[in-house]
Amino acid sequence: MGFWRRVFWTRNTKWQEKVFILTVIMVVFVTSMINLRPQMFVSQLEPKLTMQNHRLDKIFVSIQPQLDFQYNDRFYSPEFNETSYCLDYSNPRTRTDFKVGFDRTANPLHPIMFFPPEVNISEVEKKRILRLLPDSFLHTKSQSDRVYEQLEHVPRTYSNNSKIKVVYIWYLEQWKNVPTGLEFFKHCKVNRCSLTHDRKAEATADAVVFANSGHLPRSPPFQKSSSKQIAILNINESPDRSWSMEKYKNYFNWTNTYRVDSTIYDPYFKIGRDCWKPPVIPKPGRNYAEGRTKKVAWMVSNCHIVKSGRMDYAKALGKHVQVDIYGGCGTLSCPASKHRECVEMTRRDYKFYLSFENHKCHDYFTEKVMNAYDAELVPIVLGARKEDYAQVLPKHSYIHIEDFESPEKLGEYLNLLDKNDTLYNEYFKWKETGDKIMDDLNWCRVCTLLHETSLPVMWYEDIQRWWKPDGVCNGAKTWA
Question: Whole-prediction pTM value?
Answer without folding.
Answer: 0.77
